[in-house]
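Narrative of accomplishments. A recurring question from our advisory board has been how the design workflow behaves on a single, concrete structure rather than in aggregate. To address it, we present the structure tokens for one chain from the evaluation set, followed by the sequence designed for it. No filtering or post-editing was applied between the two.
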């Protein structure tokens, strides 16, 4: 599964979503810790109040009131003893100790030392010394329930124990339950996170579409750019994108003007060169020496063919021929018949009918060049066709000497030939492979040369099927 999106907008949205998630995670952790600390403070406050109240009643020697036993069970009995309920093995809470000491001082209680700790469970020595130990019994009382008391209470996460040393050295201790509020906090954070995502991501998605729509149109126009197109791409999107589209339109206009000027120049060159060549051909016909005359005619034809290849290469991509679905099998059979009629050994492994959207004239010429090279250097050619996903692969194999690996790619350079001869009969003009590859790439395909394991060379012409 691809987790990282390809588009710029998708990457932007994913980064923003991850940053929001990280920020909310940190915020949730801080809020959760804050809620935990608040619960500890509330529990310690109840414990401090209970100790101060109990010591105050003890010092005033007030007579017990009605319901004292019930209140004692509800609020917990103070524990007096020579040792602190917070022993050395427990982890103390300095912040709570400071708060509790300050609270005691404000209420007029002077203690030599105050200790505070948090435990998950109370040890046996604190039985009966817990604030709210019978809260469930008190809430389930019929009178209290009729007055709005709730039968359910929050879950206890642990206990805060406050222990204070009096002037006589005795310790007074009490425990207070710490009630958890995590479920409500989690729901609040979840709603908050969803709200933030909706408020931020929805506008970002709309903004991303506003930016990406003209960029997609620009990408499609660039991929399908054809020199000579007069239609311009409409400027849309934010100012930066509009400026980019405006620059692309200006660039395409400049490219089209340059190519038009080049075509005019090439047409003039072709006309100016072919006219004297035709006149020279007429004069050569008057040469008495037959051998010399044939050599001159061959040289003139060689120049004429080379000129034709140069003009074809220069005008490639400007062909007025429309791409149509063509049966590749029938096309290859026609080309094979042309070569066999001339006495060349060309074999075609006929397969299933395969069609491709091509400009037939250009592809026909490319295949002729590949087969002609196979016959020229390998004396014969074997042709086969395979379909690979959305590609049609045409293989042209020969039994020639092959090409050194270091020189394979350079064979596609113009005027570079495997035969050093400048004679068309043995080496050609050196533009055959260049024209063939340019044709394949103009169709969205390519040509690859590979040395065969058993000797010879394989030329692979790939064409898109759609």
């Amino acid at each position: 599964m691809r987790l990282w999106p390809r588009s710029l907008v998708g990457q932007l949205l994913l980064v923003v979503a991850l940053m929001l998630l990280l920020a909310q995670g940190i915020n949730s952790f801080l809020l959760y810790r804050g809620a935990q600390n608040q619960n500890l403070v509330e529990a310690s406050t109840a414990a401090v109040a209970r100790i101060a109240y109990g010591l105050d009643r003890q010092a005033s020697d007030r007579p017990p009131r009605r319901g004292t036993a019930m209140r004692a069970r509800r609020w917990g009995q103070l524990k007096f003893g020579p040792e602190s309920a917070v022993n050395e093995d427990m982890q103390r809470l300095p912040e709570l100790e400071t708060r509790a000491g300050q609270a005691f001082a404000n209420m007029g209680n002077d203690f030599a030392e105050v200790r505070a700790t948090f435990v998950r469970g109370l040890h046996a020595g604190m039985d009966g010394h817990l604030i709210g130990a019978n809260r469930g019994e008190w809430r389930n009382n019929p009178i209290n329930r009729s007055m709005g008391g709730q039968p359910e209470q929050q879950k206890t996460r642990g206990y805060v124990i406050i222990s204070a040393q009096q002037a006589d050295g005795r310790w007074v201790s009490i425990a207070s339950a710490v009630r958890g509020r995590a479920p409500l906090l989690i729901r609040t954070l979840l709603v908050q996170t969803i709200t933030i995502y909706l408020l931020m991501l929805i506008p970002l998605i709309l903004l991303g579409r506003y930016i990406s729509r003209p960029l997609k149109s620009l990408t499609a126009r660039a991929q399908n750019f054809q020199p000579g197109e007069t239609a311009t791409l409409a400027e849309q999107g934010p100012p930066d994108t509009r400026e980019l589209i405006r620059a692309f339109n200006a660039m395409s206009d400049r490219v089209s003007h340059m190519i038009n000027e080049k075509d005019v120049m090439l047409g003039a060159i072709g006309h100016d060169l072919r006219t004297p060549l035709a006149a020279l051909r007429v004069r050569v016909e008057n040469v008495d020496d037959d051998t010399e005359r044939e050599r001159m005619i061959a040289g003139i034809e060689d120049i004429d063919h080379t000129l034709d290849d140069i003009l074809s290469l220069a005008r490639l991509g400007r062909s007025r021929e429309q791409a149509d679905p063509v049966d590749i099998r029938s096309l290859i059979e026609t080309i094979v018949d042309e070569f066999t009629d001339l006495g060349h050994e060309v074999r075609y492994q006929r397969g299933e009918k395969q069609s491709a959207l091509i400009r037939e004239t250009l592809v026909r010429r490319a295949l002729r060049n590949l087969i002609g090279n196979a016959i020229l250097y390998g004396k014969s050619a074997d042709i086969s066709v395979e379909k690979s996903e959305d590609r049609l692969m045409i293989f042209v194999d020969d039994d020639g000497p092959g090409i050194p690996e270091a020189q394979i790619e350079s064979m596609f350079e113009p005027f570079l030939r495997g035969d050093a001869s400048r004679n068309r009969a043995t080496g050609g003009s050196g533009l055959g492979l260049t024209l063939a590859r340019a044709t394949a790439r103009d169709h969205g395909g390519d040509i690859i040369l590979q040395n065969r394991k058993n000797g010879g060379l394989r030329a692979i012409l790939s064409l898109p099927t759609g």
